[in-house]
Amino acid sequence: FLIVRNCIGTPTDHHMRRLALVGLDWIRAKDPPLSLGLASIVANLRRHAVHHEVHSINVANGLDQDALERVISSDATDICIGAFVWNEPHVQEILQRVGDHQRVVLGGPQVSYVEAGALESYYPRADVFIRGYAEDALAQYAKGHHVPGIHYKGTRDKGLQASPSLEQLPSPFEVLEKNRFHRWETQRGCAYQCSFCQHRDPVHRGVSRFAEERLTFELEELRHTRDIALLDPTFNQHLAHTTWVLDRIHACHLALQIRPEKLNRRFLEACEQTRAEVVLEMGVQSLEPEEMRHIDRIKGADPTKCVDLVKRKLRLAEDFDVRREISLIYGLPGQSYDSFMRTYDWCKTHTTASISTFPLMLLRGTPLYHLRDRWNMREGYIAEHSWRLTANIPHVVETNTMPAADMIRISEM
User: Fold this and answer.
1) Are 106 and 87 in contact (CB under 8 A)?
2) pLDDT for position 134
C-alpha cells in the first residue's frame, strides 16, 4: 500500500528544496505504516520547516508501479530514499525511472558502509549521498547547507559520516500514530565489531544513549502499545540504563536484543520483575572458538575463553523465568555442517531457549563482505527453505567448508 502525507513547512529560505521521502519497507500486518527511521527524519524536517511529502511503500510483494508513478510524478525537487539490503532491487529500479529534473538523494546502510570513492560505482544515477544518521544532514541539505556526511556526485568523496547530536533530535513519536506494535530505540551504536554486522557505529565506535527526558516522553506515548521490539543492538551493554528502562516500561510484550556475554543476575532479575513480558533475543551465532575468531566476535579476546563465558551465561539464564531465543548463523568462515551441529546440539541440550538459524548475509561494507573470495563464499537464494528470509536478500549458499547441500539441510531444520 501507499501512504502520502503532505507535510509542507513554511520555509524562509527561497533556496530550500522540496523533498519526497520514499520508504521502501517490508511491512507486515501488525507494523505501523511508517518506519521508526523514516519517522525520525520526518520529525526533524518538521522542526526545520522543510517542505516534504512522505511516500511509505510496502515492498513485501514487490514495488507497486502506481506508487512508484506517484513518486516520480511529484513536484519534489529531490527524491530521497533509504537504501537497505532488502530493498536494493527497488532502489535500482527507481533510479532508472527518475527524470533529469529531479535529484536523487540516497542514504541508509547500503550507502553508509561503502568505502570512500566507491559510492558512484554502486549508484551511478544518484546525485547526492548521505552516510551515517541522516536526520540532521538531510534537513541541512534541504536548506542549502554543507555538513559532513553529504557527498555530491562528481566531487571528492571524503567518506565522512553524518553524526547528529542525539539530544537535539526530536522524537519520532511526535509523528508516529498509535499502534498495537511499535519498534523503539533507546540507544544507538554497538560496542562490538563483529565482522558480519552493519550495526557497528562508524563514528563513535560505541554506544550513544538518548536523554532520559526524551525516553520518558516516548514511554508515555507507548503506554497503550501492546507489543514493542527494541532496536538497540546490545540493550544490556550498560546495566544502569537497562534497569532504568525496565523499571518504567508498562505491561507489554517486549523483545530485547542482547549480548549473552553481558548477562548477569541483576539484569535477569530486572527482566523478571518488570511489568513487561520480556523476550531476550540472544545472538549466540556460534560456540566454536575458531568460528568466533573468524567473525571477530570479541575483538582481541581469546575465543576459547569467549565460548566458555557465553556457555556460563546461557546456563545462568536458565535460573530465571525469562523467555529466551537463541539465534545461530550458518555459512560462517571455516564452519562445517558438523561444527554447526555441535553448537546447535549444545544449545538444545543445555538450554530451554528456542533456537532460530539464519544463513550468513554478506552485508555491504562489512569485513566479511570484502573477504568473501578468501572463503569461496557463493551468494544466492535458498529463501524457499526459510520463512524468515525474503527473495530480495542474497545470502551465502555455499563456502569452501560447507557445501550447498549442507546449507539446505540446516535451513530445513
Assistant:
1) no
2) 97
Strands 103-107 and 150-152, how do they pair? unpaired
- C-alpha 250: how far from its chain's center? 25
Number of residues written out for the chain = 413
- The bridge status of strand 128-130 relative to strand 150-152 is antiparallel
Low-confidence stretches of the chain (pLDDT < 70) are 1-15, 200-205, 383-391
Give the pLDDT score at 12.
43
- From residue 67, give the alpha-carbon distance in Å to each of 23, 61, 92, 391: 11, 13, 15, 21
Strands 128-130 and 103-107, bridge-based pairing: parallel
Residue type, 196: F
How many degrees, rounded to 5, is the angle at CA 395 between CA 390 and CA 400?
155
Q: What is the model's pLDDT at position 220?
A: 98
Q: What's phi and psi for 203, nearest 5 deg? A: -100, -60
Q: CA-CA distances (angstroms) from residue 406 to 256, 271, 327, 333, 343?
A: 31, 37, 18, 14, 15
* Strand 187-188 relative to strand 208-209, pairing: antiparallel
Joined grid coordinates for residue 23 = 520508504
pLDDT at residue number 389: 54
- For residues 93 and 90, give the distance between their C-alpha atoms in angstroms, rounded to a whole number: 5
As a dihedral over the C-alpha atoms of residue 362, residue 365, residue 369, residue 373, rounded to 10 degrees, the angle is 150
